[in-house]
Each structure stands twice: as structure tokens, then as C-alpha cells.
Amino acid sequence: MKQAAIVGIGQTEYSWDSGRPETVLAIEAIKAALEDAGLALQDVDGVVRSSIESTTPIELVSLTGMRPLSFAADDATWGGFVGSVIGLAREAIATGRARVVVVFRAFNGRSQLRLGRPMPGSVEGSGAIPRARGNLPVGGEFTAPYGVVSPSQVFALWVRAYMERHGIDAERMSRALGAVVCQARQAAQRNPAALLHGKSFGPADYLASPMLAEPLRKADICLESDGACAIVMAAADLARDCRQVPVHVADAWQHVIPGYQNMWLMDKQLPPSIGREVVPAKLARHGLTPQDLDVLGLYDATSFAAIWDIETLGLCPPGGGVDWVLDPEIPFNTSGGLLAEVYLQGLNQAVELVRQLRGTSTSQVPGAQHAFLGAAALMSGALLARGLP
Amino acid sequence: MILPEPSDATRPFWDAAVQKRLLLRHCPRCGSWLHPQLLFCGCGEWRLEWREASGEARLLSHTVARRMPVPALQGEVPFTVLLVRTREGPQLVSSLPGDGHALRCGMPMRVAFDPPVEGVALVRFIPAERVGTGDGMR
Ligand SMILES: [Zn+2]
How large is the ipTM? Predict the structure, then answer.
């Protein structure tokens, strides 16, 4: 089985209004990632994306002068795609289906489709009172009439259930949420590409952020933003000749759990959990424990998600995430993450982890060797390592 | 305000709410109770029936909504969003006007029905201890 490595990373500028179509953003990010690797469009024989992506491999191969693709695939797990797309690319390389695979995400999430609002067509109507239709957990027939019209209300219901289970009061929760937000904002101050770069932010700013759905404030919710990023993966023999230090994709996985269809609102146990044994067992196959990880890329769609992921990873006891984030033993979301860099559903976290393992992050963890990438309550993830085995 | 747009599949639920009755789906094969939007039971049965539920529930979680991204609800904040688990099992989202409801996860809740607007009655859940006190929604 051929090993796979990330050999190139690329991104567009991140903005509130890109002024161009997502397909153009995608091509820009892909070209940047190939240039970073020292490869050309004609070297690419595989493309992997999320099914929530608007640009298709067919468009790319038709528009950009790529040669025929031997591998083109979608992941179909919404925001949980990042570990999965990297896994699909890794498996295509391992089986010889492809040698150079591009993975990308391009999203005008501010100027086109704002995910902080009901999906187009779900809440509307010709009468005086709008009507909600469909079975989406946000903005659907059984949720929008009661005020669940953006993910923030759903996430707030998760947080309240968590607080009750562990006896965490509002002040302690607020301190932990604020710590996650402040560390993301501080990372963004060091990352000139981050959307919130140049906007200083401290604990007092956190407490001044408007409450959306208690206990979540506006600052607790990820950005709605425009931009694209991409990674290039290659077979190990080719990766050794590329321009950059290869980042080995040691593992990548999916663990899609029931309840995702309704964001777990129909599930007894909130927040959703894959089980605290799942990720440690995967790491153990590589001789690692969660504590051995040098840097983490967590899916901070809300600040709470980072706290929850740290517990699910097994870095602290259940209910201990609120204390862990006050003094993190392992740096996480060092580019500013979804809260402060850009909302590209975690592919921007993958790009940042590659920078960490190359030693080129703006918040560099000295000597980082192993990085963990997780998405959507860790339902997908990847273990990345500096250099090839 | 936002009202539901019943589909052919969910219309019996909303029609019953106007009659102040809470209907849930029920599987005649395995006896499971299911959310009104589910069309199949996990046991493989797809010919589900509607059955009247007890109206009893427990509070699973709650949040006070203070800002709304849709104009139709902006005049109603703050209000309290609820997630309840009915005694039969299915979970429903609901809401109460205002904040300060002194809610506790796990507390008993009881179904209530709004007066119909444009022919639709929203289904609410209020703390069981307030039933009959005339202070249901507050
Ligand atoms: Zn059944």
C-alpha cells in the first residue's frame, strides 16, 4: 500500500465579499497549492471534494486544462467532510487509482449562502406570516415556528444539556467559552490572512459580545465568510521530490453517528458523541495517545465544539473540558480556526496543521511532529505527521 | 411569527393540534412511537399510524433566544426555546414567550396549544407545575 502525503497548500484571500464565483476561488486555491508543491495542473489525476461544494470535478477538468482524471469523488457528510475527503484521497493514492490528488473547498459563505440563516426556500410565504417547511433541523416545519432558525439555537440546546449533566453554572461556562474565543482571536492577530486579524479582542470584549442564544454569544459562533483553500496530496515516492517537507497522512477516518440528520435534536443524549474511546483507539494503532499530539485542529463551529471535542478526544474527564481550555496543554486552532480565520468547514484547519508540521505557522508549536484534525464532533478526522515514515 | 407549512404527511398532526390533541406516529409492527416527520420505523415498517399521546414530557434542554436572524421573529425576542422528550419517546422543539422561566432539565412538562392563527395551532410545552394556575405561558 502506497503512503500518501500532503505536499501543497493554497488559499485565496479571505473576505466578507469575494466578488467572484466560487469556481474561480476554487481554481485560484488549487493553483496556489500546486505551485506550493512545485507541481502543475497537468500532474493532477484526482480531485476530491465535499458534496456541499458547488464546483464539480467535471468543471475543473473542463475549465483548467487538467489532463483526464482517474479519480473524482465526493464526501456526503455535510460539515463533517474534512477527514473524509483526505481519507478518500489517501485511499485513491494507496490503491494506485491516482498519484496526485487535489482536495479543495471554495465557499462564498457571506456574500452568497449564509448558513447562519434558514436555508433558501425553507422559511417564506406569500401571506403576512411566513411559513416554514421541510424537515431540516434549522428552519424546518417543526423547528422554525419555535425559533430554531440558525445553528446557534441548536448549539445552545447542546450546551445547556452539557451544563446540566456536569453541574456547570453559567459563569463557569462563560469563562470557558470566552477562553476559547479569546485564544482564537489571539491566534488571528498573529495570522495576517485571518479575517479577524487586526481586531484586538480580550475577555471584556467577549462579555460585550451580544447574546444570541444563551449561553452563546455572537463571538461564540463561527464566521460567515468568503474564500477558498486547497491541499495537494501525492504518493510518497513523488512527495519526496516535491518542494516542501511532506506531511504524512498517517490515518484518516469517518465515524458518522445516528442523529446527524436532525443535528441530534431527536436524540436522547446531547451533545452528540462518537464515544470517548473511538479516537484514542485510532491513535493507539500508531503508538500514540491523545497527550502525544503536538497540535490540534478542531471544528470550532462554536467555541463550545472545541471544548466538547477535547473531551471526546480523551484529553480530560467528562465535564473537564471547561477547565482544560483555560490552560490548554496542547495548542489548538492556531490559525484562528472557524471562529476567527475563515469558515471553510475545517479544510482551513488542515492547511494550518500542514504549516505547523512544516514549521511555518504564525503561531508555531516548536518541533511539532503529530497533528490531529477533527470535524463535526470528531465524526471525521485525520492524523498528520511531519515527514514520511 | 412563523407558522408551519404542513405537508401531506404531517397535516394530521397540525389538524389535531387545532382540536387540542397531540398526535405522534406509532409503529403497528414494533410499537415504537416516532416523531411526526418520520415516515418509516427503524424496524422496516412504513405503514405508520397516528396515535394520541399523553401530552406528558420532560424538559431535555432550553435556551433563551435574544437575537433572531429572520425579521419575522425579531419582534418576539427574548423568548425561550425548549427541547422536550415526550413520555412516549419522540422529542419535540417548542418555545415559550419571554425569559426567566426557572426551567430545570428533567422537569415535567405538559402539552398546551396556542389559539389557531391562519388555521394553525402551535404546540407548546409548559412546566407541569404551572398547569391550571393560569400562569402557563409565563
Ligand atoms: Zn417499528
Answer: 0.97
